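Data card: per-record layout.
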Amino acid sequence: MAVSHDLFIEFFDACMSFKGKPLTDSEAVMMFAKELGIAKCDYITYKDGIPSEPSLICEFSEPLSKQYRSYHFQNMFSSAEIRTYLGSDESQTCEDYEFLLNIWDRTVFRALNCYILTTQASYNLMHDQLTGIHNQNYFMRHLGKICAAKASSNYVAFYMNIRNCRFLNNVFGNYATDEIIKHFAIDLDGRLDKENGECLSRLGGDFFTFIALKKNEEKYIQLLNSFPIDFTFGTDRIIYTISLRAGVAELDSSYDTPDSIMSAICAAFSLTKNSANKPFVFYDEEVSNQIINKNSLETELRNDLDDGKLLVYYQPYIDVKEDSNVVSGAEALIRWRREDRMITPVEIIPIAERNKFISDIDFYVLEKVCDKLSEWKNAGIKIVPVSCNFSEFDLKISNLADKIVSVIDKYGLDHSSIKIEFTESAFNNEPELTRYIVNQLKESGVKVGLDNCADVYFSYKTFTNSDFDYIKIDYRSIDVTDNKKLLVLKNAINLAMELGIEVIVEGISDDTLIKELGDIGCKTFQSLYFDKPLSERFFENKLKNQ
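The structure for this 546-residue chain is written out next.
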């Protein structure tokens, strides 16, 4: 069998240029195949064990039979089988035949493997792994093409996310929620007019970017307000209506770069969190001014935090007794005096969370409280335990419990002087981590509470899977005209106390209900009915006069 060195080289070069189209036009491949009596070579890929339709590598004549020589391989993306059919058996008498066939197999394998890896890598570069729709890389290139064609004024752009995804995780679980996101993305993507430039991409998690023709804007906004999901997951049928919130920009010729489009829709989106009744915020001059003011507010807050200008107020816990009311503790609440008004945690906390310095604020409050309690104690004032709030973000801090205790020790306070509160959402989202930190704090003698039990239907695991010393129930969320809900409230409080968990009721202002709750053992309240949050000076006077 006459196979020259040059033919080997030419055959190898031809195979390595394989880009998915048959190599039949290559003279070197044809000559090599003829020497080996090969009539046809194709391949099959497998995904989840399911074979694809055969794809041709080369074909020269009718195969001698349906029998073929098989060569299997697997890479990080898929597995494949190369099938080589013979058109003649004359060459098989050659003593070099098996050696040359092995060269054929391995060369074709390398070419095909390289082609599959390159193709998949190119696909991954432009597509989202979970949903299969385009990703941000593709979307930015797509915006670039629209801008280059000076066609921006034909489109409206969205930066959006699915609302209440944490709720979905809690109700359906992580895997099912991923399927909900996947079905939403594929369904919406299938509705687009892609031939005319509409494009959807997933950024990650439950965030998406989307560009649509202006003539379809109203249709898409209605759909995104109420997007039906209906599919089978395992043995369950999941029926749910998704709603989204989005920053929207109706583009014009001034949007001449992808970055200018993204800046506008991201800026508008940042305001949707503060617009409970406006899930869609449209970018305009007013929004631009709001963003400037918001950025200024964020910078000022960070600077005043660093300069120690933030204030700590104390809202008393009141133990209701037959002859008098006693201050048994307090909650420390951050305040920020800015120009002519006092800014409360309702505004401060979202800014700090969004800009990743909420943990700095939480430790700032702890330091201020410990410093003030130490000062009062040294002045002979009888102090009461003060609760400091720590957020879900703090749970990720390494050795959080040790760091809290070290601050308390720094000011020479007994560990019982400080209580730490986590929100119920933190416990629900990070139950194992919260439980671990709670136990560490309790071992150090620091009591721990669960704040923001916003309604009486808080989770069964709140009672059974945690070791909180106390819980707070927000009375303001309860419909007092609904006797069933009041009954559930009373029984929830009774159950907590039977389990040794203290209950503090927030927001109550009804003398009759205070007495009824007192009759079942709940005697601690935190409410404007008893006292508003007090400055250090006024709270100090309250302690002195008690």
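Known properties of this structure: The first strand starts at residue 38 and ends at 47. The chain has 18 helices and 22 strands.

See the next section for split statistics.
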